[in-house]
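Revision sheet: structure tokens.
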Amino acid sequence: MRGSLLLSLIAIMACASTGSAPVQQRDPERQTVRVEGVGAVTLTSTTTTNVQKMPYAIDKVWQVLPAVYDSLGIPVTTLLPSEHTIGNEGFKARQKLGKTSLSRYLSCGETQMGPSADSYEINISVVTVAKPSGSETTLETTVEATARPLNFSQVPSRCSSRATLESRVVELAQKLAAR
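Predicted:
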């Protein structure tokens, strides 16, 4: 009884000092966040680089990548022509990226009201590196994101990419390069 009382007091003090809800780690890739009045949100975190080949020379692919990012609604803040790197390493998004719901691109857990990606503030990084591969080009796109509820003060939690955004980068690049 005394042990559980002591643990309860420690948990309350931890919440009071940070102003955030307690976070419980279940395993390295899953995180459960309890938000008062909302319930539990389970988040899974993975960061992978999506690698796909395109049947076009690197110059042609590099030329169309700014238009690809623009059409997806991703503001370009990183543009390194010598390294064939384009992207944005940290911007905020809410509900949509361009005309597409964020939950189509990201898995940030679920709340009682639906996918967290559609209601939380999302900080997202999207970077594509084009690499020559003979007469083809390899596109390596990495998407990383964190989510934070708007109405609660808590540490942002990591989101996982559904690989849809990475595939859209390649799909649009192929379409534009084919012209």
